[in-house]
């Protein structure tokens, strides 16, 4: 296999042999902030799923930087989650600990920036500060439906409240919170309404108070503000030889739809099909070309090492763009601390 | 064989022709669920028990129907009928209520039903008939015909707190679920040719009837033939036996054995021996035998010598061969046959029977074991009645002697219950004593319970190191699972039934005998030896007994099979010819292994696509297939007379049967493994052992149970890659494991030696989270002196007016409240017991409070638990029974054990933050990282395929199948991956989570079903600095349960000695163990006490030294046996 452009990560059939060579993008010349600032580009590509998903390109930086943002988004940007559950009554089938765990994983609407981190020894009793705690209540009792649908034996028809959903978790103002947050439930409630918490049967009851606090994903995954934040390097596909005719069709089938297009050119003779790379961006990098011995000679699969396609899927408490900015702020703060520490040594 | 080879080409051609004809039958496997639908997986247990309580028990009672008395010749008790009711419990005196198994489990009761009899007996001169008289209680097998769960719908079962998927087949004794394991036994009533340790050929026959069990051997020794039997001192010349049986002439004897030149030559020495011993007539022979009898200790018999020996010959020798009016013809023929077999064995050693061959084995099930036990108890019951009658009838009393008043029911009840609960099977009349017949049903997981129901225990000694009985027998095919056996001492001896194995129950012999005679079998009684041994006839046997001879055995066999397929004969009766013995064997006895096969006629399977369609639509059941003669059961011996095709394409000209579905040759546990045919075979065996330790769900009623130990998974999942077996046994409804996204790569150094890396975020979200339930139990008894246990409310601290710390969680009723957290050493039930329970507290009847001492139920364990529920009830002795269910929720931690379904276990080596985990283009981080070094040596290719199929299944949104010898093909799975934009090899482009750079290698990743095993660090971790000591030696206690010390053993000691670390030795062996200061008298060298030497009566020269307490103990013990150890002390400086 011929060695291609050394500035690209080459996807070979069985390995990515030059993967490590690109850890430092700027080889040779000394790193300068000006040059970095000049090269760094951020392009927003797509915003989707009710503004909960953001795809943007981070171009011109080392993977370490992109990765730092990813890691911070996953585990260090704070969010609010239920931390303490005070169970008054739980006669349902679900165990107290499991119920508490499930409640803890519910995503909340609250903006973590409005709250403090909880005071360190979290007080055992229920009086908590309105500065760092949100209080919720879940009170559901299952009963027989007095007016069941005729001839139906389906649980949802003959019982009331047989399914406990996340919408049954209600926000309860603490201290001054009712005045500070006039929008209340809308601003601080539970994000999704239809998360099934528990199933019940008549006579069973759940009554619990919950305290939500601000925390980070490092402590527990429930505090992570994103479903996931990830990046991938921009794929690049080069055709080293023209691919024509039937081969072109096969080549097209080897990649994700829209990656390879077939151009018809009269000059190419009777079978006028020829494959061209249309847009390699959305290729899944499945490398299935390598299954065809004749095709693999004609293609070189590479990835651009300093072009990151960043995707942030927010849980919904904050828009992904804001989350990214938070991540940047966190990184900045961390750098400051680090520099301070270094200065202190000297 | 030779013929086969010469015709190779022709047969190939023929096969080619048939290959074209053979059509693939789509969905043939649907027959398997249809087969299992009838009675489920444990049908053999239930059938056997049903046969016992409905048929056999009546036979037993019939056989022992009369009780007579020596005191009164007119007195008798006659049993007219016996029946077993439905299980009930005594609510209060004489009020019974139908019970459910679950109630018995919770209340520690027996799930048993009354055994009632109708009797006719005499009272004085009256003849009285009494109906429905209780003589005892019979433990009832769950889901048997008398069980309340029989034929109940899911809804009804749920109402009874019973899981619809629970297989039943076990008993509930004292609230414990007990299984009577299937016992593997040697064949009875057949002639087995063996070689004894001296190299002699022996044909032996284990006879077994209801009365006795005997073993008769015919030995060929030094060119002569002898009979070897327990009641004779030494080997008896066989001719003498013939003569004693009334076959006196040598010619007649010879004709019975066979008049071929070879046989005559071999037997002449035996005839001569008899002549030299001067045995010519029957009378002489009988006296000869009488002299060689084993001397009885108590010669009680009133009979003469002749009658006695004739009796022995009739009853003890080959006792299963019936003798009517001392007509020994059949028995003599049988012995002649044994001699002939010995001769054949001497001529051709290959004829020696294989003892491990499965056709020579019988499986004993709950029914037959219980019937042995019941018969023994019933005989004892009758014997006792007789004793009572003998004792009481001569006495003159006001009331007439009424035997009914003396019938005690507790003997049978307790006898049966004790046998099942202890597993000790003691049958007096057979001198049988067996331990470990029953076991507690393992409820660790659903699979472990199922696996236990199919377990087969061999009678073979476990300690012996012989490979024969342990190795896989070809005749096990389809009957016993080739994978599921434990490692270690039980390897190959403990086996498990395959999925479709059926174990026969006895079938009535009478109709078969009649049929055989109608089919041209001639009775041997009317024939001479010459005709019996004619070259052209085959001898016909029924269950090892000679039925007669037949000229046209082919017709007999064929017609017999035809009738069986037409359902005119019971489907479990087997018939097969044995050509080298020129006989036809018909078997109708119980305990044979058999298995259904599709019948093939003229190279075409009788089961056609249309039949399968009818089955699918529910127009047909499995029984219809049997009745229509499309499918029949073959036992191991008949299998050997058939040509069975593995699949449709292998049907050839001579094929008689077709395998229903190949995956059924595996058992329940091996059926869980996806793609087992791609794995190295020991891996499947390992998984069979590990599947039983996986936690998950144990039944729909798991939350209603209060077991001593129960492990549950919080979020169990059905596996992404299923198998047909998984669906058949409902493992997908009661799963034990979770689908983890696995990346096969190395990560850090914490994954060596099979350790796994877990993703912390996955654990946070509930992966591997489990619940551990334990129970605490106590009973409140009443004692003989009118005192009773009591429970008190919490003790209140006088200052704070709050309960003391120990009693914090108990309610006013003295029992801990549900939902409370219990910590180490907290009281759960504040029970106290009267100090004196035996003697009356105050004979003067003065009402004073008896003294009580506290016997609280404490919680032990370093990690607190929660009280899930409290049950207050009463047990069989009417004592209060309090059960508490304790719960712990555990998240996986480092050191917890996980395993895939391919015998690949590993402990958690490291828990890694999500951001440190590698991620792929889609942003997927694996839940688990597994080191690729686990693959090359284990060769678990099945796991690789499972991952691939799982990945494709997730992408496509469907389950793939990894059924043995079938399942989704790798090719198709790869195409499906490509369709969804994945690499066809399942390898993805990953980035390091730590540096953010791409990894050099493509990573094989996807979902694999992982089981969490019961071994968790929390239950094992142990350390001690200071702690309890043993009373006698003052050394630290041993073991984790007693908070013991960590032993510095002999080998460790050797190391320290070798290294020369003397101070370290002193520290570990004395200072941190049992150091003790003793005073030693320097004058006498004995130990002094408090500076005073008792032997010298002085305190003049006493020194204090430190020695191990155990050393001091040794000196004192030596002194007590008159050995005086004296210590001579020196200053260390000298």
Automatic annotation (TrEMBL), chain A:
Record-given protein name: DNA-directed RNA polymerases I and III subunit RPAC1
Primary subcellular site in the record, as a coarse category: nucleus
Keyword Transcription: yes
Keywords for this protein: DNA-directed RNA polymerase, Nucleus, Transcription
Localization in the cell: Nucleus
SMART domains: RPOLD
Pfam families: RNA_pol_A_bac (PF01000), RNA_pol_L (PF01193)
UniProtKB/TrEMBL annotation, chain B:
Pfam families on file: RNA_pol_Rpb2_1 (PF04563), RNA_pol_Rpb2_2 (PF04561), RNA_pol_Rpb2_3 (PF04565), RNA_pol_Rpb2_4 (PF04566), RNA_pol_Rpb2_5 (PF04567), RNA_pol_Rpb2_6 (PF00562), RNA_pol_Rpb2_7 (PF04560)
Keyword Protease included in the entry's annotation: no
UniProt keyword annotations, A-Z: DNA-directed RNA polymerase, Metal-binding, Nucleotidyltransferase, Transcription, Transferase, Zinc
Source domain of life: Eukaryota
Catalyzed chemical reaction(s): RNA(n) + a ribonucleoside 5'-triphosphate = RNA(n+1) + diphosphate
Domain RNA polymerase Rpb2, residue spans: 188-364, 439-503, 540-601, 622-654, 1044-1129
Name this polypeptide is given: DNA-directed RNA polymerase subunit beta
């Amino acid at each position: 296999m011929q060695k291609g452009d050394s500035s690209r990560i080459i996807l070979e059939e069985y390995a990515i042999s030059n993967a490590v060579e690109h850890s430092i993008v700027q080889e040779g010349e000394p790193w300068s902030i000006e040059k970095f600032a000049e090269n760094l580009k951020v392009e927003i590509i797509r915003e989707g799923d009710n503004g909960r998903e953001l795809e943007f390109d981070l171009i011109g930086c080392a993977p370490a930087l992109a990765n730092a943002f990813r890691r911070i988004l996953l585990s260090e940007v704070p969010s609010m989650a239920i931390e303490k559950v005070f169970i008054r009554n739980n006669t349902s089938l679900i165990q107290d600990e499991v119920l508490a765990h499930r409640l803890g994983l519910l995503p909340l609407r609250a903006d973590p920036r409005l709250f403090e981190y909880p005071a360190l020894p979290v007080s055992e009793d229920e009086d908590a500060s309105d500065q760092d705690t949100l209080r919720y209540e879940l009170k559901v009792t299952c009963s027989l439906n007095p007016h069941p649908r005729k001839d139906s034996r389906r649980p949802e028809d003959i019982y009331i409240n047989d399914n406990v959903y996340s919408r049954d978790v209600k926000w309860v103002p603490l201290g001054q919170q009712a005045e500070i947050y006039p929008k209340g439930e809308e601003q601080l409630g539970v994000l999704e309404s239809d998360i099934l918490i528990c199933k019940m049967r008549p006579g069973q009851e759940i009554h619990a108070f919950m305290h939500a606090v601000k925390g980070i994903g490092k402590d527990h995954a429930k505090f992570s503000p994103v479903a996931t934040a990830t990046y991938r390097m921009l794929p690049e596909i080069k055709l080293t030889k023209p691919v024509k005719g039937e081969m072109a069709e096969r080549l097209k089938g080897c990649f994700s739809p829209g990656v390879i297009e077939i151009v018809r050119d009269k000059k190419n003779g009777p079978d006028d099909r020829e494959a061209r790379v249309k847009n390699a961006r959305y290729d899944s990098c499945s490398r299935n070309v390598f299954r065809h011995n004749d095709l693999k000679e004609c293609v070189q699969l590479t990835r651009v090492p300093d072009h990151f396609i960043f995707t942030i899927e927010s849980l919904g408490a904050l828009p992904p763009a804001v989350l990214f900015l938070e991540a940047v702020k966190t990184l900045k703060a961390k750098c400051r601390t680090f520099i301070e520490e270094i200065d202190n040594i000297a | 064989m030779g013929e086969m080879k010469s015709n190779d080409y022709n047969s190939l051609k023929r096969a080619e022709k048939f290959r074209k004809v053979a059509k693939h039958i789509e969905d043939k496997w649907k027959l398997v669920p249809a087969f299992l639908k009838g009675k489920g997986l444990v049908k053999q247990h239930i059938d056997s028990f049903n046969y016992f309580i409905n048929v056999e028990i009546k036979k037993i009672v019939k056989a022992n129907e009369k009780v007579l008395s020596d005191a009164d010749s007119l007195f008798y008790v006659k049993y007219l009928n016996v029946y077993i009711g439905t299980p009930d419990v005594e609510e209060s005196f004489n009020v019974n209520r139908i019970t459910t198994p679950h109630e018995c489990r919770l209340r520690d009761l027996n799930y048993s039903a009354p055994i009632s009899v109708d009797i006719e007996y005499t009272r004085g001169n009256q003849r009285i008939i009494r109906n429905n008289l209780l003589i005892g209680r019979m433990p009832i097998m769950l889901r048997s015909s008398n069980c309340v769960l029989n034929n109940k719908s899911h809804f009804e079962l749920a109402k009874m707190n019973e899981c619809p998927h629970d297989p039943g087949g076990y008993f509930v004794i004292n609230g414990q679920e007990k299984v009577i394991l299937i016992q593997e036994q040697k064949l009875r009533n057949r002639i087995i040719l063996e070689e004894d340790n001296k190299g002699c050929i022996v044909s032996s026959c284990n006879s077994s009837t209801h009365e006795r069990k005997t073993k008769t051997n015919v030995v060929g020794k030094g060119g002569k033939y002898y009979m070897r039997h327990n009641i004779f001192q030494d080997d008896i010349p066989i001719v003498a036996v013939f003569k004693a049986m009334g076959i006196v002439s040598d010619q007649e004897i010879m004709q019975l054995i066979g008049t071929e030149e070879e046989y005559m030559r071999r037997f002449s020495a035996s005839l001569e021996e008899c002549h030299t011993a001067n045995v010519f007539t029957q009378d002489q022979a009988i006296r000869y035998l009488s002299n060689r009898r084993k001397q009885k200790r108590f010669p009680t018999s009133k009979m003469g010598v002749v009658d006695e020996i004739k009796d022995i010959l009739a009853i003890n020798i080959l006792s299963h061969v019936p003798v009517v009016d001392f007509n020994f013809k059949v028995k003599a023929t049988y012995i002649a046959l044994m001699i002939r077999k010995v001769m054949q064995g001497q001529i051709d050693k290959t004829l020696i029977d294989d003892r491990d061959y499965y056709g020579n084995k019988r499986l004993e099930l709950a029914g037959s074991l219980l019937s042995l036990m019941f018969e023994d108890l019933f005989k004892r019951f009758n014997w006792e009645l007789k004793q009572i009658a003998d004792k009481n009838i001569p006495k003159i009393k006001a009331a007439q002697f009424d035997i009914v008043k003396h019938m005690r029911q507790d003997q049978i009840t307790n006898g049966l219950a004790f046998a099942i609960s202890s597993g000790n099977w003691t049958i007096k009349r057979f001198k049988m004593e067996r331990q470990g017949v029953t076991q507690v049903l393992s409820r660790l997981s659903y699979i472990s319970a199922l696996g236990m129901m199919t377990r087969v225990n061999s009678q073979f000694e476990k300690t012996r190191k012989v490979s024969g009985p342990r190795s896989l027998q070809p005749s096990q095919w389809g009957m016993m699972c080739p994978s599921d056996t434990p490692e270690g001492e039980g390897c190959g001896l403990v086996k498990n039934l395959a999925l479709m194995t059926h174990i026969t129950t006895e079938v009535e012999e009478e109709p078969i005998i009649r049929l055989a005679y109608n089919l041209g079998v001639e009775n041997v009684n009317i024939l001479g030896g010459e005709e019996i041994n004619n070259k052209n006839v085959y001898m016909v046997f029924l269950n090892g007994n000679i039925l007669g001879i037949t000229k046209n055995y082919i017709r007999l066999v064929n017609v017999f099979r035809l009738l069986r397929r037409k359902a005119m004969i019971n489907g479990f009766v087997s018939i097969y010819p044995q050509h080298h013995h020129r006989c036809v064997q018909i078997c109708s006895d119980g305990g044979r292994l058999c298995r259904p096969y599709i019948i093939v006629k003229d190279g075409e399977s009788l089961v056609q696509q249309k039949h399968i369609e009818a089955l699918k639509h529910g127009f047909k059941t499995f029984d219809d297939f049997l009745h229509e003669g499309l499918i029949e059961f073959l036992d191991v011996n008949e299998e050997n007379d058939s040509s069975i095709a593995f699949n449709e394409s292998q049907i050839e000209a001579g094929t008689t049967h077709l395998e229903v579905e190949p995956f059924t040759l595996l058992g329940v546990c091996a059926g869980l493994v996806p793609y087992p045919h791609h794995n190295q075979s020991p891996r499947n065996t390992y998984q069979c052992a590990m599947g039983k330790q996986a936690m998950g769900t144990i039944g729909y009623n798991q939350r209603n149970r209060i077991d001593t130990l129960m492990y549950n998974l919080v979020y169990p999942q059905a596996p992404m890659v299923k198998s047909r077996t998984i669906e058949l046994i409902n493992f997908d409804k009661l799963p034990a494991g979770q689908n983890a996204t696995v990346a096969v790569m190395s990560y850090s150094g914490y994954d060596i030696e099979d350790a796994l890396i877990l993703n912390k975020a996955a654990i946070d979200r509930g992966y591997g989270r489990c619940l551990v339930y334990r129970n605490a139990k106590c009973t409140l008894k009443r004692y003989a002196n009118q005192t009773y246990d009591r429970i008190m409310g919490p003790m209140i601290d006088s200052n704070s007016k709050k309960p003391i710390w120990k009693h914090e969680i108990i309610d006013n009723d003295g029992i801990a409240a549900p939902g409370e957290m219990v910590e180490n050493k907290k009281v759960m039930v504040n029970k106290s017991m009267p100090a004196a329970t035996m003697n009356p507290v105050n004979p003067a009847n003065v009402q004073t409070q008896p003294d009580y001492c506290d016997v609280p139920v404490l919680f032990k364990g370093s990690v607190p638990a929660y009280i899930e529920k409290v049950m207050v009830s009463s047990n069989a002795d009417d004592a209060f029974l309090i059960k508490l269910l304790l719960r712990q929720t555990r998240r996986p931690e480092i050191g917890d054990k996980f395993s895939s379904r391919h015998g690949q276990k590993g402990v958690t080596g490291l828990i890694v933050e999500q951001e440190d985990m590698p991620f792929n283009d889609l942003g997927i981080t694996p839940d688990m990282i597994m080191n690729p070094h686990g693959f090359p040596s284990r060769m678990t290719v099945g796991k690789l395929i499972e991952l691939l199929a799982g990945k494709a299944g997730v992408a496509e949104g469907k389950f793939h199948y990894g059924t043995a010898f079938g399942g989704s093909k790798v090719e198709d799975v790869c195409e499906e991956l490509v369709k969804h934009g994945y690499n066809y090899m399942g390898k993805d482009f990953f980035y390091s989570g730590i540096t953010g750079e791409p990894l050099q290698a493509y990573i094989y990743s996807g979902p694999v079903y992982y089981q969490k095993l019961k071994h968790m660090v929390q239950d094992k971790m142990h350390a001690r600095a200071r702690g309890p000591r043993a009373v006698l030696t003052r050394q630290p206690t041993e073991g984790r349960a007693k908070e013991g010390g960590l032993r510095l053993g002999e080998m460790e000691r050797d190391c320290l000695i070798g290294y020369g670390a003397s101070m370290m030795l002193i520290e570990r062996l004395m200072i941190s163990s049992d150091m003790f200061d003793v005073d030693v008298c320097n004058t006498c060298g004995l130990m002094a006490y408090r500076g005073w030497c008792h032997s010298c009566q002085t305190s003049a020269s006493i020194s204090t030294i430190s020695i191990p307490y155990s050393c001091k103990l040794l000196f004192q013990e030596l002194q007590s046996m008159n050995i005086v150890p004296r210590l001579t002390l020196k200053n260390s400086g000298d």
